[in-house]
Write a structure and sequence with these properties.
By secondary structure, this protein is mostly helical. It has a domain at 61-124. It is built from 1 helix and no strands. The radius of gyration is 53 Å and the shape is rod-shaped.
């Protein structure tokens, strides 16, 4: 009977050990799952951060390019404006010169007429 009791005890202990092992394995599995989930979440977070950083960098580059393009366009417009102003000034100068020349010619003609008149008067006298 003692041997039977011992055998029963042994089987009970073995069964208990098996149950404990099973519980341990389940716990380890759960822990592994938690670790994997946390790692995946962390990885996802890191990937999201990297993606955000890349997007920010691209946005910054695009902003800089836009700024440069706008600056170039503004510079081009300014240059065109300056050229137009210069052209207008030159045209104005030419017109003024023409006006002066015309005035001089008119004055010369008047002087000539006066001289002719004087000569005619002298001749008549």
């Amino acid at each position: 009977e003692l041997v039977m009791l011992a055998m029963m005890m042994m089987t009970m202990v073995v069964k208990m050990m098996m149950v404990v092992m099973m519980i341990m394995v389940v716990l380890i599995m759960m822990a592994m799952m938690v670790v994997v989930v946390t790692l995946t979440t962390v990885l996802m977070m890191v990937v999201m951060m990297v993606v955000m950083m890349v997007v920010m960098m691209v946005m910054m580059v695009v902003m800089v390019v836009m700024m440069v393009v706008t600056m170039v366009v503004v510079a081009m417009v300014v240059v065109v404006m300056v050229v137009v102003v210069m052209m207008v000034v030159v045209v104005m100068m030419v017109v003024v010169m023409m006006m002066v020349v015309m005035m001089v010619v008119v004055v010369m003609m008047v002087v000539m007429m006066m001289v002719v008149m004087m000569v005619v008067v002298v001749m008549m006298v």
